[in-house]
Amino acid sequence: MISENDSFGERVKVGQNSIVKENVTIGDDVIIFPNVYIGENTKIGNESIIQYGAFIEHDCKIGKKCRIGTNAVLRRETNIGDYSIFGSLSASEGKNWIGNHVLIHSQCHLTTGIIIEDWVFIAPLFVGANDPEMLHGRRRVKKFVPQGPHIKFGSGIAVNVTLLPGVVIGRECIIGAASLVTKDVPDFSIAYGAPARAAKNVDEKWRLPEELYQEFRRRVSEEDLVKFLDRVLSDYE
Ligand SMILES: CC(C)(COP(=O)(O)OP(=O)(O)OC[C@H]1O[C@@H](n2cnc3c(N)ncnc32)[C@H](O)[C@@H]1OP(=O)(O)O)[C@@H](O)C(=O)NCCC(=O)NCCS
User: Fold this and answer.
1) Is the pTM of this model over 0.90?
2) Which of 10, 29, 64, 73 has the fewest Cβ atoms within 10 Å of its own Cβ atom?
């Protein structure tokens, strides 16, 4: 089912039983598999692929040449840059920011307010938390302001990692398998364990080319990301 005021590019394919709600913008050569849901005002860039059963809520932005995996869930106002992969059975709780060339594997949970900068890799079974006090049912006591973690440029997060609310993983870090990260991790560190501790620095050889970092910084400043979050979380309920 496609709505009348949607804007579709050239050669877009929409599979059986897929629902595209009002005011959706879809670029050229996008492939939407069967049983996909796309909510109001969502935008999808050229040559992206949306696999079987993905559920994408309203006001999401997905860049060009992305892949959204089978049965993935993107809740409202999830922003994904270009050339990124959002794995099968992974879920974004919405109102978060994911950069370009990000690879999020399957079965990951991205909490509201998380920021994931360009060239980050996240292995399966990642969990991000955003509510230190678990205010469930107690919002009359205190306003809930999500404190999503922030994963900086080029970091690699191994399998089964948990990030507690508000932690910052520095630039090009490696976080070891099954780590529980309770505190910020400095740039270029290898950290692991529960609680995770920085054990050493990454090898110079492992670092991404500096041009990629400069390209990212030209496009997005630290300040832009702070402003972005302030804006998307300001009307959070
Ligand atoms: C963190 C990691 C990169 C460390 O690798 P490394 O620097 O080569 O570390 P080593 O194997 O030399 O181990 C050094 C010590 O740290 C311990 N260690 C390594 N990884 C650990 C982890 N994730 N948690 C707890 N301890 C760990 C080792 O047991 C060893 O302890 P010891 O000195 O008492 O013997 C690696 O263990 C890891 O987790 N890789 C990620 C794998 C992964 O999930 N890939 C995703 C693919 S989809």
Assistant:
1) yes
2) 10
